[in-house]
């Protein structure tokens, strides 16, 4: 009998140990605070004014992956921003939200947001701390209100402890909630693609193909997708034929007719994980995107001047060979360490 | 004891007399601070506001009722009879008037003693506050909707809804007959691509209806009438049938131009000791 008790006791200890190692991630070693990569400019988000502690980050991460942020507790931020898909909704042309409802736009990556000056395809929000309100309140995404979420969290002892660790007291307020989510998103930095290692001279070199692709990129794409973020953060009409939805893009925000069909220039980092492409996810792969630029661009009134050529033709003239070289270069912008970063994992 | 009673009676009578003789209010001492409120008393034409129950008819002959009325008042400024301005510190100068909550009808501030002959306020939220960090947008300005669920903020087009009015009218050709006016837009965060700016600044002369004589220990109340009918009856008149829903659109500026004329000064109550007197 005694032996039995000892055995069960040991068993329990073993189970307890296993559980502990499952629950507690190895964050102490992983979290190093916000860092500006050597080849990146200063971030747009005021990190000095909003220093990110490990505790705030951990709270933000728990919130990011908590389905209670949606009306019926089914959809978390992470549902449509999946790390393995570069924090997008892989395979979905437009966002797929609560009650299987569909939005009208492609889920954007949570990546290098600390450098973003404006958010969403139309730039409707200019402050990261206000970003989370949008998917939360969108009736086809999470369809919830922050005050309701706070009530749900207030009923959870674990959150009281997490808020206290992060902010000194256990008060669960809207500002702390938003700031914690920002803390998580700001840490989603992707800066370790092959391209970065070449630029930072960390022992990597472009192949001949990649090097040629890089030169092509700089002459044909970098106007709108400048290094090292591979977006200039502006809103442009890149000559897509409007779909049946007739999404007017930036115009919906500014009501300026000159901004009809303009959308934010997306980054070209991590394209390997983030298909499909464009604001409505209409292109399933990069070949489709390059074919668009080389031969499918149309002018519906507000086309970006950089897509107009002296000979009257629209788009970016690219040969099949050039496309291949560009694709080789774009491949160097994929950051496997980002999509596998345990720090950001659910 | 009797003497004390007499003194008490006498002083009570003196006070009563003093209250009656308004001209004998002591001269203001600007080192002292008194309470001042601006009362936003919603009416519709020549009727009081009765949400959901009362029927009103606008200049276009459309009969409607109102189910929801709420708007921001901010950036209060008062000018005294000498022409000097007092600007209420901005952090305490944001108010949300809710048609369904009579307690919300006062914008209460503290101002130096003085005789104030005009009031200026913003209908809406100024552009600077609209782009401030969230820490400086608490209380009625909480963008997450902490303001009693009033829903006075657009998340997707980051900005406050200045004025919200909803109701029903049989002229609206939809199943629920609802009309919804949600008016905002502060000019946008990017000066290179400005949006509409529907921020309205309203100044009212208080002289005809009574200046606000603000004195320490008392409250003055500037009683305004807010005629919601002016949303429809203005230049131009707005037809509900043609415009059942006005939100982020060019037409929002027409509504805002009309509603800036809603406010008129009715009277001022000075020497108020208790809000129940109002």
TrEMBL record, chain A:
Heme c 2 binds at residues 221, 224-225. Binds 2 heme groups per subunit. Heme c 1 binds at residues 77, 80-81. It is found in: Periplasm. This is Cytochrome c peroxidase. Residues 208-334 form the Cytochrome c domain. Gene3D superfamilies: Cytochrome c-like domain. InterPro entries: Cyt_c-like_dom, Cyt_c-like_dom_sf, Cytochrome_c_Peroxidase/MauG, Di-haem_cyt_c_peroxidsae, MauG/Cytc_peroxidase. It comes from the Bacteria. Signal peptide: none annotated. Its cofactor is heme. Keywords: Heme, Iron, Metal-binding, Oxidoreductase, Periplasm, Peroxidase, Signal. GO terms for molecular function: cytochrome-c peroxidase activity; electron transfer activity; heme binding; metal ion binding. GO terms for cellular component: periplasmic space. Binds 2 heme groups. Its main location: periplasm.
Automatic annotation (TrEMBL), chain B:
This is Copper-binding protein MbnP-like domain-containing protein. InterPro entries: MbnP-like_dom. Residues 1-18 form the signal peptide. The lineage of its organism: Bacteria, Pseudomonadati, Bacteroidota, Sphingobacteriia, Sphingobacteriales. Residues 34-247 form the Copper-binding protein MbnP-like domain. Keywords: Signal. Pfam families: MbnP. PROSITE patterns: PROKAR_LIPOPROTEIN.
